[in-house]
Amino acid sequence: MNDTDQEALILDSVARFLDREVRPYVHALEHDDIWPADIVEGMKELGLFGATIAAEYGGLGLPTGIYAKIVEKVSTVWMSLAGIFNSHLIMAAAVERFGTPAQKEEFLPRFASGELRGGLALTEPDCGTDLQAIRTVASRDGGEYLVNGTKTWISNGIHGQIFALLVKTDPAADPRHRGMSLFLAEKGPGFTVGRKLEKLGYKGIDSAELSFSDYRIPADRLIGAAEGRGLQQALGGLELGRINVAARGVGVAQAALDEAITYSQVRKTFGKPICEHQAIQLKLADMATQVRAARLLVEDAARAYDKGERCDMEAGMAKLFASEAAINVSLEAMRIHGGYGYSKEFTVERLYRDAPLLVIGEGTNELQRIIIARQLIERNPV
User: Fold this and answer.
1) Residue 118: enclosing H or E segment and its boundaries?
2) pLDDT digits (tens, 9 = 90+) for 145-155
């Protein structure tokens, strides 16, 4: 089977799963903010929790380009689902790229099967984009580390079992990043899940506070077995995360465009479908162009990632443009629907609420602009 056939087979399987197991239930689950337990089990069976993990560890070993298309397809139906396996796969990528052989053998097969699921624990109450300002500290105590601190806005925080936890192992280090380390932290004594955080959109997936009070973690859970590399390891995983968020943006925007195209052909004003009015045609043209441009930027970033090249600029461009496209296209779809677009009975209302997360998550769009500009200068010295 060639790559094209494999891609078609995988995407067809995902599409059939979404039509059968997700689409009929998403409205009720999203409305009541319910963790989609049955859908998660279905995603495990599809292998989505091992989508980018190498086949030698039981994963699908998919190229990032195919993974991005899966994320887009999932997000056209319910964007929250992509977050459930994305956070998990960023954690897995950190282990696969930087972990010791023993860590890879112990954890990656269980990550790939979905037996052990989790995410990334970076953000803190007083620290979002500026990760070097984290205050969670891990102090060496014999063969263990003692962890104290708090994380917040952690995806899969309630239903996940293990997290890539970013801490300070040397709070006095200068520069600060040399004192940061990344651990695999499983739930246990001293690891407490706080309140579930209520959100405007992005329902279903659990976002929670995590607290660590004299939480003991074995020293062999330090990713890569060396202190001081945590920030670089976390940022390496975020490249994949930003491609995922960009693909989600494409999915949300495509779904909004689809809703607008359909509605514009059935809604009539002044004796004809509104799609025949020039004002609506101008909107649809701009929306479709934004969706296509966003998709091409995602494909470009995925190719760079798969080549092993530094791609923070490409991933940043994709994330920036696609997430802004999701905001713009979902708003225009709502306006095309008129009053109905403001009703919870229509899908565009949910898409409009889901889109804002994408301009904030995995690094704000303001940060992406700074990254892009700095890379432009670095890659084009005078």
Assistant:
1) strand 118-121
2) 999 999 999 99
Phi, then psi, of 136 in degrees rounded to 5? -65, 130
Owner of token pair 């112990």: 106
- Measure CA of the first residue to CA of the last residue in the chain; give whole Å: 48
User: What secondary structure does DSSP assign to 219-284, as a single string?
Assistant: GGGBGGG-TT-HHHHHHHHHHHHHHHHHHHHHHHHHHHHHHHHHHHHH-EETTEEGGGSHHHHHHH
Asked whether 239 and 97 are in contact (CB, 8 A), the reply is no
pTM: 0.95
Separation CA 331–CA 348 (nearest Å): 8
Q: How far from 336 is each of 32, 201, 269, 271, 342, CA to CA, in Å?
A: 26, 21, 12, 17, 11
- Non-local (6+) Cβ contacts of 219 within 8 A are 140, 143, 144, 145
Amino acid identity for residue 184 in this structure: L
What rounded mean pLDDT belongs to the chain? Answer: 95
* Neighbouring-strand partners of residue 217: 145
Amino acid at 208: A
Q: Is 309 a catalytic residue?
A: no
Taking every pair of C-alpha atoms in the chain, what is the biggest distance, in angstroms?
Answer: 80
Per the CB < 8 A criterion, the answer to whether 119 and 155 are in contact is yes
Q: Report the relative pairing of strands 162-168 and 118-121 from DSSP bridges.
A: parallel
Q: How many residues does the chain have?
A: 382
Rounded Cα–Cα distance for residues 308 and 354 (Å): 31
Q: How many helices (H) and strands (E) does the chain have?
A: 10, 9
Residue 289's pLDDT is 98
> Are 55 and 61 spatial neighbours (Cβ–Cβ below 8 Å)?
yes
Q: Which two tokens stand for residue 73?
A: 């397809």
**Which tens digit of pLDDT belongs to each residue from 183-241?**
999 999 999 998 889 999 999 999 999 999 999 999 999 999 999 999 999 988 888 89
**Inter-residue contact 186 to 121 (CB < 8 Å):** no
Residue 346 phi, psi dihedral angles, 5° rounding? -105, 140
**67, containing H or E segment:** helix 64-98
Annotated active-site residue in 198, 362, 366, 378 = 362
Q: How many CB atoms are located within 10 Å of the residue 59 CB?
A: 22
